[in-house]
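Progress note, sequence design subtask.
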């Protein structure tokens, strides 16, 4: 066996940097009130889960309106914003028109906005959360408190709005969260559900729990959960923690019932092994070899979750051919960013790989440091099916190169993958001739072991 003299200091440094990034990537929980968080959100718009517009909401005065003040929600101003990472909720612009006032203030969600008045008249616009109820008043004070009033938001859908009123965040897909077929009898209510999986240390390892964030608009301040009354702590939002054994939770607000089913594992298993197999076009060129044929390639995959944003991943590809190769890599995969309302995930993969191949009856071992990335689009074409594509690249340097690119589509139960692997190394009689391999094909596979 001939060993390469190439070392991998860059890959080692990159691995260390990835470990540091894993700790730095933790996100602090949002502890602010829901309307305040929604108004202050700067994380970008979320995908609309329904056809609601600003005309499906209204503002009402609590008591008499102050003289000379009108309030409306601006048409086409509704936008969906992501809060607490797993909720997408609406906000809009409130337009206040004031006549005959010398000064005025608007207080909402802890912030005070002075009215812009000229000659006693003026118009002011501010962003408000479209969260119904008296707990989130918009307070107006004119002429140093001589005239006062308070507004509240109400959900009053148009007749043309979709009748379906329960919506699930993308975060709930993998846990099978769905509503039972219960008629929705309260047209002035709607609900949005977000999910998080909890990892809890138990006597025999880590167990799991499901954190369910239920936003239920116009439901009041209490919700029946499996028959027990629970008070909202953050304006129409209830935060529930569910066990694996139950698989069902029954909710009720007044006459409206909502039963949710879910499926989570009883034991947390952060590691997964998967295997794939498929036909590939196979090219192998060396000092005395010029092979262009087809060969079966077996692929194996490792994924081990270190945290919510960092995984240890590995792969192995072995060609079933006389002039075979075996390609094994181990990488630290770190979530770099999310886009398109958390549907697109970008991961950076830093690590190293090793090649073992046979040429002219001699076995060679070569190590290298191709670095990579992977893009994953969640719920691609079908619920709970993801599409991912990525590559490992080592450009031509000192006579060696490596390219590994893939496109994969599948669910937690099986996948199909288009894969391209090409590498160039030194070999031959005097270890100075080019050995080149290229494989292109399709593999199908499935996870077979969790640990």
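Output:
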């Amino acid at each position: 066996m001939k060993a390469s003299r190439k070392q991998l200091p860059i890959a080692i440094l990159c691995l260390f940097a990835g470990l540091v990034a894993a700790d730095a990537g933790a996100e602090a929980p949002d502890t602010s009130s829901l309307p305040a968080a929604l108004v202050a959100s700067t994380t970008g718009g979320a995908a609309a889960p329904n056809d609601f517009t600003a005309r499906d909401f209204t503002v009402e005065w609590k008591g008499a309106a102050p003289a000379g003040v009108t309030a409306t929600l601006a048409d086409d101003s509704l936008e969906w914003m992501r809060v607490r990472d797993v909720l997408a909720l609406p906000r809009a612009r409130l337009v206040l028109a004031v006549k005959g006032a010398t000064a005025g203030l608007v207080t909402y969600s802890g912030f005070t906005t002075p009215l812009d008045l000229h000659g006693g008249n003026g118009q002011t616009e501010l962003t408000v959360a479209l969260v119904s109820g008296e707990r989130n008043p918009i307070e107006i004070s004119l002429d140093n408190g001589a005239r006062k009033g308070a507004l509240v938001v109400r959900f009053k859908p148009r007749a043309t709005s979709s009748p379906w009123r329960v919506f699930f965040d993308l975060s709930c897909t993998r846990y099978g969260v769905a509503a039972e077929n219960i008629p929705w009898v309260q047209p002035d209510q709607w609900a949005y559900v977000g999910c998080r999986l909890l990892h809890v240390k138990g006597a025999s390892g880590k167990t799991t729990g499901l954190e369910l964030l239920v936003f239920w608009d116009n439901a009041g301040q209490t919700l029946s959960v499996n028959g027990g009354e629970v008070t909202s702590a953050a304006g129409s939002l209830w935060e529930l923690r569910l066990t694996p054994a139950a698989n069902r939770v029954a909710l009720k607000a007044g006459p409206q019932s909502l039963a949710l089913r879910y499926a989570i594992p009883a034991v947390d298993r952060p590691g997964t092994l998967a295997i794939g197999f498929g036909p590939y076009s196979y090219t192998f060129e060396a000092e005395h070899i010029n092979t262009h044929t087809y060969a079966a390639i077996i692929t194996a995959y490792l994924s081990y979750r270190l945290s919510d944003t960092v995984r240890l991943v590995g792969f192995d590809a072995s060609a079933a051919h006389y002039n075979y190769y075996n390609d094994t890599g181990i990488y630290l995969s770190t979530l770099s960013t999310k886009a398109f309302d958390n549907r697109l995930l970008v991961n950076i993969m830093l690590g190293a790989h090793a090649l073992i191949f046979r040429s002219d009856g001699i076995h060679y071992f070569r190590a290298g440091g191709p670095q990579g990335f992977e893009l994953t689009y969640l719920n691609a074409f079908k619920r709970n099916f993801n599409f991912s594509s990525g590559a490992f690249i080592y450009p031509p340097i000192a006579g060696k190169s490596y390219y590994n690119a893939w496109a994969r589509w599948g669910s937690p139960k099986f996948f199909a993958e288009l894969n391209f692997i090409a590498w160039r190394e030194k070999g031959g009689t005097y270890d100075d001739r080019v050995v080149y391999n290229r494989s292109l094909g399709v593999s199908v596979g499935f996870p077979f072991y969790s640990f």
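Residues 210 and 242 are 5 Å apart (CA to CA). Work on this subtask will continue into the next period as scheduled.
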